[in-house]
Design brief:
single chain; about 60 residues; alpha+beta; 4-stranded antiparallel β-sheet; 1 helix; 4 strands
Length: about 60
């Protein structure tokens, strides 16, 4: 499945296509072949929650010192 996007490749500024395979969604540059895996909403929320937990732990550690 392919969906065209108007985004530009961060590497060569070429055109990026949004595609999906058995492993999930990804972006692929038509000019240089750069590939970037995209997160699902659930994965993005999980990473954000993990980031908040680590920030809280760092804050607690700095208060203890």
């Amino acid at each position: 499945m392919q969906i065209s996007r108007l985004d530009r490749c961060p590497k060569c500024k070429g055109y990026v296509m949004l595609q999906k395979d058995n492993y999930g969604w990804y972006e692929e540059c038509l000019q240089c072949g750069y590939v970037h895996d995209l997160l699902t909403v659930a994965e993005a929320e999980q990473r954000q929650a993990e980031g908040k937990k680590s920030e809280e732990l760092l804050g607690l550690q700095s208060q203890m010192v």
